[in-house]
Amino acid sequence: MHNTLQLVLVLLAVAVMVVVLCRLLKLPVTLGYLIVGIAIGPHALGWIPDTLQARHLAEFGVVFLMFSIGLEFSLAKLRSMKLVVFGVGGAQLLLTLAGVAVAALVLGLDWRSGVALGGVLAMSSTAIVSKILVERAELNAPHGQLIMAYCCSRILL
User: Fold this and answer.
1) pTM of the entire structure?
2) How far apart are the C-alpha atoms of 40 and 63, rounded to whole Å?
3) 19 partner at 20 to 30 Å CA-CA among 12, 26, 127, 144?
4) Do the Cβ atoms of 99 and 107 come closer than 8 Å?
């Protein structure tokens, strides 16, 4: 696979299959995208090689992920929940980063890799949780707002 069109076609074909499968299994589609992205990437099945074009497509994926998370937040809600967002949510983020960094050290990886993986874990879980809350119409419920406050802290900090 040497051109961008082939990369895009593979990604689109797999994305369509993932959406259908996730809907049948009643799982969040974002979770399916993340799992398949890992599976077809250069370090697993190798359907998508580690090229400059693939890296550009991956960057677009991250931008779309951040955009989908940003659609769920309002600035007014963030201001009203600033203590929870920056206090408890910030502590949760730091604990996640530290926990994954320690796990990376135990596995023989560099601690910086662990911090990066912890950030990826925090951001991807934010997207998944926000989509689940929207699908269940629980985003404006008290527990939904508390959960989103934790998720917002991951983005803002």
Assistant:
1) 0.54
2) 20
3) 144
4) no
pLDDT at 154: 54
CB 104 within 8 A of CB 97: no
Interatomic CA distance for residues 25 and 155, integer angstroms: 29
Contact partners, residue 50, CB within 8 Å, separation at least 6: 42
> What Å distances lie between residue 116 and 93, 134, 138, CA to CA?
12, 28, 30
Rounded distance between C-alpha atoms, residue 37 and residue 39, angstroms: 5
Residues 36-50 pLDDT 10s: 888 888 888 888 888
Nearest to 100 by CA among 127, 83, 122, 71: 122
C-alpha to C-alpha distance for 83 and 97, rounded to whole angstroms: 20
Range from 70-74, 117-121, 135-139 carrying the lowest mean pLDDT = 70-74
